[in-house]
């Protein structure tokens, strides 16, 4: 570890410890630029934002106030201003959170029991899901004969004529339910001491007034969640909250608007997430189409489409055969995770019962081939609790009587692989243990393309330098670092961690390139040619869909999907699911076989990004805040968000096939 990195690590540690005496000794020895870099990391991690009234807020403010005075003694004015900007975001966010909490109390139906508050939110979510399902059935009737396995880019019409995307609407229902239950669980103390799972009271009958109150609760919960996430994002990447007052048609409005620009990494993170969703959906559609003609037998029966799609997707990322892989993640193998969710999928599509006994769950899990101990562990891992991000990956709610409420809509059309990635991410499970298998896959891609690749390591100046992959292509030497890491799943805190990991990886790769340039004999030992005759091209090779257009800090980023496609096919085609008709969209090779120039063009401008990037738009979304105290002003919190414009994307695809003669 170099000295500058050690300094920043020490600074960060002393900031976390709030050790002003040590900071006083360290500050004169560091540059303000390095200190601001450390502050940026300090504010990016959770802990400073305290969502509910708590003495922790005062202690934090005291420390930051003293820190600013200390910074004045070393003339770190920019650092003082940086802290002030961040604390303003924190104070505004906490004040709005407090208002939401008070509004929730004011919104309570007089005499309503905890059970009525909880179950009115759940019942509202059930009704919303049923409305979407009814709209989807009407859409299918209008589209008679046309198969739409992938619903991520279609628009359906509700009873009032409004067009919307069913997947996005389902996401809203499920996310809002998770936020509502999460907020109420703290308020009503539904988490037993020392436990992580939320325990709900028995279901009760719900009145219309309870549903009306629940609707307000859900809207406020959605604002709470969005405010929290976007504030974390502003603390990490920059931004500020501005208040704007205006009047329209005699109605007064007050808007708390989070003003910020998206960083290049956030845009990359968004595209990676969207590519991941589309890839899984396309694979599922292809498997469904294929299985209509040739189901895949397991020897004792047939794999369902959802199971087969999940197995293929997970095997693709982890580079293992799941039947042989015995690695455990939170006590379960990957196959057990998949079969567990598959069992819930089966239950959701065979019954609308929402109350399940443990014996029923165990019976269905055993039927999928899971052993009893693993079945019990799976149930514990998919209980909705403190660490749950949504109801997709934790759709079971523990009830007071020992049974479970099952929000089956989350599992009806589940993409098991996506849900599993989400759950492993929320549990902060690392994929690095599959590094060697992924590196082997990288070499196999090149071997199939008749390119020789090597892995090697050497010691120099007392340090070890290990190379995952080096290969010669044309007059270029590609030095490759393989990374098998989770996506952020659009979580603000995890996003920043991924950003830090990217910078660490790039620093490591540049270190390897520097060592190779200064030790050309090590290269000649491997390839028996002179390094000086070639241009070195550093590349990070990601397991999940993370590519970057051009160089980032001197390094290219590509991924297994894009890289393997480049060497296996001269073009990227659009394909109609029903007819199988294919139309070339992007030409990858300039001739009959790939060249190093073609690969450089791929790295400079990955075509896998161009379609989604072209149709990515920034939209401003409003979320309701409690009205002003005297009720004369409507109030909202607004944020800018990256979204895919499905209208324009669908139109582009339609034109592609309309132009085919």
Topology of helices and strands:
Layout: H1 3-17, H2 20-26, H3 32-44, H4 55-73, H5 77-107, H6 114-142, E1 156-157, E2 163-164, H7 166-187, E3 199-200, H8 208-237, E4 240-248, E5 251-259, H9 264-291, H10 305-318, H11 334-350, E6 355-356, H12 358-367, H13 372-381, E7 396-399, E8 404-406, H14 409-412, H15 416-426, H16 435-448, E9 453-460, E10 463-473, E11 476-483, H17 492-518, H18 520-527, E12 535-542, E13 548-552, E14 555-559, H19 560-568, E15 571-575, E16 582-587, H20 596-604, H21 607-614, E17 616-624, E18 633-644, H22 646-658
Entry summary:
The longest helix is centred in the first third of the chain and has 31 residues, at 77-107. With 661 residues, the protein is α+β, with helices and mostly antiparallel strands. The chain is built from 22 helices and 18 strands.
Describe the protein's architecture and organization.
Helix 1 (3-17) packs across helix 3 and helix 6 (114-142) runs antiparallel to helix 7 (166-187). This protein is an alpha+beta fold and 661 residues long. The longest helix has 31 residues, at 77-107. The strands form five sheets. It has a six-stranded mixed β-sheet with strand order 9-10-11-12-14-13, with helices on both faces. Strands 3-7-8-6 form a four-stranded mixed β-sheet. It has four domains: 3-105; 108-261 and 617-658, no CATH class; 295-429, no CATH class; 433-614. The model is unreliable at 297-301 (pLDDT under 50). The radius of gyration is 27 Å and the shape is globular. 53% of the residues lie in helices and 17% in strands.
């Amino acid at each position: 570890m170099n000295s500058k990195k050690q300094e920043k690590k020490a600074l960060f540690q002393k900031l976390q410890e709030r050790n002003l005496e040590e900071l006083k000794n360290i500050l004169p020895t560091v540059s303000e630029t390095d200190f601001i870099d450390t502050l940026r990391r300090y504010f990016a991690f959770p802990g400073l934002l305290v969502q509910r009234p708590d003495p922790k807020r005062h202690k934090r403010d005291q420390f930051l106030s003293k820190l600013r005075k200390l910074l004045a003694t070393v003339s770190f004015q920019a650092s003082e201003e940086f802290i002030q900007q961040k604390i303003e975001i924190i104070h505004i966010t906490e004040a709005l959170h407090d208002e939401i909490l008070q509004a929730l109390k004011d919104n309570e139906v007089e005499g309503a029991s905890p059970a009525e508050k909880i179950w009115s939110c759940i019942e509202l979510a059930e009704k919303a899901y049923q409305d979407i399902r009814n709209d989807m059935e009407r859409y299918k009737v209008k589209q008679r004969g046309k198969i739409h396995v992938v619903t991520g880019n279609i628009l359906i019409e509700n009873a009032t004529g409004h067009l919307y995307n069913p997947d996005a609407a389902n996401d809203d229902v499920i996310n809002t339910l998770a936020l509502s239950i999460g907020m109420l669980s703290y308020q009503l103390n539904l988490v037993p001491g020392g436990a992580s799972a939320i325990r709900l009271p028995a279901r009760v009958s719900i009145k219309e007034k309870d549903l009306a109150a629940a609707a307000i609760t859900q809207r406020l919960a959605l604002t709470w969640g969005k405010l929290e996430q976007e504030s974390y994002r502003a603390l990490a990447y920059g931004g500020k909250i501005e208040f704007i007052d205006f009047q329209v048609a005699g109605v007064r409005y007050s808007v708390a608007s989070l003003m910020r620009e998206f960083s290049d990494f956030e845009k990359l993170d968004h595209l990676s997430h969207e590519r991941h969703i589309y890839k899984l959906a396309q694979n599922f559609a292809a498997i469904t189409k294929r299985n209509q003609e040739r189901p895949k037998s397991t020897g004792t029966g047939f794999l369902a489409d959802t199971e087969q799609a999940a197995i293929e997707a997970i095997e693709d990322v982890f580079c293992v055969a799941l039947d042989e892989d015995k690695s455990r993640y939170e006590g379960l193998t990957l196959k057990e995770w998949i079969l567990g969710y598959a069992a819930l999928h089966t239950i959701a599509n065979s019954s609308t019962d929402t109350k399940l006994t443990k014996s029923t769950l165990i019976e269905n899990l055993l039927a999928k081939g899971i052993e009893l101990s693993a079945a019990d562990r799976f149930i514990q891992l998919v209980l909705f609790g403190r660490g749950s991000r949504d109801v997709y990956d934790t759709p079971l709610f523990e009830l007071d009587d020992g049974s479970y409420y099952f929000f089956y809509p989350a599992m009806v059309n589940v993409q098991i692989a996506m849900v599993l990635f989400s759950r492993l991410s929320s549990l902060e499970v690392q994929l690095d243990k599959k590094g060697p298998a992924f590196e082997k896959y990288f070499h196999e891609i090149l071997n199939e393309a008749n390119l020789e690749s090597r892995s090697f390591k050497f010691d120099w100046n007392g340090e070890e330098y290990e190379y995952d992959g080096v290969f010669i292509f044309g007059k270029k030497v590609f030095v490759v670092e393989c990374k098998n890491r989770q996506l952020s799943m659009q979580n603000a805190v995890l996003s920043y961690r991924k950003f830090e990991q990217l910078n660490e990886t790039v620093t490591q790769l540049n270190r390897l390139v520097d060592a190779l340039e200064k030790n050309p004999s090590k290269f000649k030992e491997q390839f028996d040619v002179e390094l000086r005759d070639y241009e070195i091209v550093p590349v990070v090779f990601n397991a999940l869909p993370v590519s970057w257009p051009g160089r980032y800090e001197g390094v290219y980023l590509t991924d297994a999907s894009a890289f393997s496609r480049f060497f296996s096919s001269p073009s990227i085609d659009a394909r109609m699911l029903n007819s199988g008709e294919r139309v070339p969209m992007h030409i990858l090779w300039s001739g009959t076989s790939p060249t190093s120039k073609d690969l450089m063009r791929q790295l400079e401008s990955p075509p896998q990004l161009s379609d989604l990037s072209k149709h990515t738009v920034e939209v401003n979304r409003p979320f309701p805040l409690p009205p002003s105290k005297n009720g004369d002003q409507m109030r909202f919190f607004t944020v800018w968000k990256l979204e895919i414009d499905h209208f324009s994307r669908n139109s582009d695809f339609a034109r592609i096939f309309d132009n085919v003669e």
